[in-house]
Amino acid sequence: MPMPPMPTPFPVDPPLQVVLVSPQIPPNTGNVARTCAVTGSGLHLVEPLGFSLDEKDVRRAGLDYWAEVSLRVHRGWPEFEAAALRGQTEKLHLFTARGGRSLFDARFAAGDLLVFGQEQLGLPPALLAAYPDRHVSIPMREGMRSLNLAVAAGIGIYAALADIAAARGIR
Questions:
Q1: pLDDT per residue over 74-109, tens digit each?
Q2: Rounded CA gap, 91 and 105, in Å?
Q3: Residue 103 contacts residue 137 (beta carbons within 8 Å)
Q4: What is the DSSP string of 136-150?
Q5: Domains in the chain: ranges and CATH
Q6: Are 21 and 116 in contact (CB under 8 A)?
Q7: Order of strands, edge to edge, in the sheet holding 101-102?
Q8: I need a labelling partner for 99 at 20 to 30 A (CA). Which of 1, 33, 63, 133 fits?
Q9: What does the DSSP assignment read for 7-22?
Q10: What are the φ/ψ torsions at residue 95 (nearest 5 degrees)?
């Protein structure tokens, strides 16, 4: 059965930037990379990583999309701040299950940085404390702990793209 053509996302310039702080599970990072590739979003990995980027599980999850990913690896949060954030804290969105403004109330713009934490621990408390007004949470049923990292990143990326599209009058 032939596949109908897929719609392509509108270009976001500058592109969204997805930031994974100390990811530990290779397939999650591979899946996030794949989502970044198909949306044109950049990907930043903040060390320490719980795996090598050469691991087959990372590559398998990202399939053949890795060549399409704009990837930067940073040796820690201070290096990321200096290289990518450069004092533009209004561009920062720290995704956390521990509260903050709802994803549905957050406003996104081209070039924003969507930051996600380690699978088991989330973002470091010191990082959350440093930017208390930049927290974003994805609404969940009460009593539920969290979403899978790749799922949360996908929700965040597409919510940001929808918000940018709405601001531009694109449906």
A1: 999 999 999 998 888 999 999 998 878 999 999 999
A2: 15
A3: yes
A4: EE----TT-----HH
A5: 17-166 (3.40.1280.10)
A6: yes
A7: 70-74, 42-46, 17-21, 113-116, 92-95, 135-137, 101-102
A8: 33
A9: P-PPP-SSPPEEEEES
A10: -80, 125
Structural tokens at position 144: 């539920």
Q: Are 161 and 9 in contact (CB under 8 A)?
A: yes
Give 135-155 pLDDT, tens digit per residue.
999 999 988 888 999 999 999
Helix segments in 25-148, DSSP class H: 26-39, 56-62, 77-80, 125-130
Report the distance separating Cα 14 and Cα 55, nearest Å: 30
Which of these, 32, 28, 31, lies nearest to 18 by C-alpha position?
Answer: 32
Count how many residues are written for the chain.
171
Distance CA(13)–CA(146), nearest Å, equals 31
Query: Cβ contacts of residue 70 below 8 Å, gap of 6+?
Result: 15, 36, 42, 43
